[in-house]
Amino acid sequence: NAGVTQTPKFQVLKTGQSMTLQCAQDMNHEYMSWYRQDPGMGLRLIHYSVGAGITDQGEVPNGYNVSRSTTEDFPLRLLSAAPSQTSVYFCASSYRTGRSEQFFGPGTRLTVL
Amino acid sequence: RKEVEQDPGPFNVPEGATVAFNCTYSNSASQSFFWYRQDCRKEPKLLMSVYSSGNEDGRFTAQLNRASQYISLLIRDSKLSDSATYLCAVYNQGGKLIFGQGTELSVKP
Questions:
Q1: Which of A15, A63, A98, A101 has the most CB atoms around its CB within 10 Å?
Q2: Mind listing the pLDDT tens digit of every residue in chain A (113 residues)?
Q3: Chain A neighbors of B34, CB-CB under 8 A
Q4: Which residues on chain A are in Cβ contact (under 8 Å) with B32?
Q5: Per-residue model confidence as pLDDT tens for chain B (109 residues)
Q6: How many angstroms separate the CA atoms of B109 and B106, rounded?
Q7: CB neighbourhood size of A83 (10 A)
Q8: Greatest Cα pair distance in chain A
């Protein structure tokens, strides 16, 4: 199993550009989520999904969209990138809800100029 | 105020020391509690879950105090390899898993 994979590993955007961060898991996990990590802020939940077709907002959803058309994939879209979105983005999945062990991807380091 | 809070540290301790971290949470309906470990620039990994009765895994002991709404992590006989950031996480009834800011631990020879 590859576990949780994220692409790209690094990305530089200009203000106003849009892009999609990809996340996929091959463990047949129902629960998937996106976090951003900034210095001194820990992990902050952006969006999460309890299953295909179901998504909900986390702590810091503004400026991001998600969809969950399949169990395996949970892409995160930045609609119009801003410098405040410069961060490390982690995707995570777990067997069932947030009660289970979260398996994280390696992260995407995003810089918005 | 963040829903889950930790002392960010850093905690600088010598090898062999005992160190304790606390994590407070504000939602009294929180259901599940965890400690994750994160090495520099890597993804977090589960260290241990925290049960109501407390639990121990080798040199690591986790406890939950529901009345005061905090969880703790005790590391005994610290090793150099314990140097990392320790993140507490709290699962709420609404389906959200919320993390604290993380506590940085540096174990020195």
A1: A98
A2: 789 999 999 999 999 999 999 999 999 999 999 999 998 788 999 999 999 999 999 999 999 999 999 999 999 999 999 999 999 999 999 997 767 889 999 999 999 99
A3: 101
A4: 98-99
A5: 789 999 888 999 999 999 999 999 999 888 899 999 999 989 999 999 998 888 999 999 999 999 999 999 999 999 999 999 999 999 987 778 999 999 999 999 9
A6: 10
A7: 10
A8: 37
Q: Show the tokens assigned to A89.
A: 């983005």
Q: How many CB atoms lie within 10 A of CB A37?
A: 21
Q: What is the least distance, in Å, from the CA of A7 to any CA of chain B?
A: 14
Identity of the amino acid at B86: Y
Lookup: tokens for A93? 């999945």
Report the C-alpha gap between B22 and B8 in whole angstroms.
10
Q: Which residues of A touch B (CB under 8 A)?
A: 33, 35, 40-45, 48, 50, 56, 58-59, 90, 97-99, 101-102, 104-107
Q: How far apart are CA A8 and CA A105, in angstroms?
A: 11
The span from the CA of B62 to the CA of B35, in Å, is 8
How many separate helices (H) and strands (E) can be counted in chain B? 0, 11
Q: Which amino acid is at B1?
A: R
Q: Residue length, chain B?
A: 109
Closest CA to A63 of A40, A89, A42, A39: A89
Which residues lie below 8 Å from residue B3, measured CB to CB, with a gap of 6+? A59, B25, B26, B27, B90, B92, B98
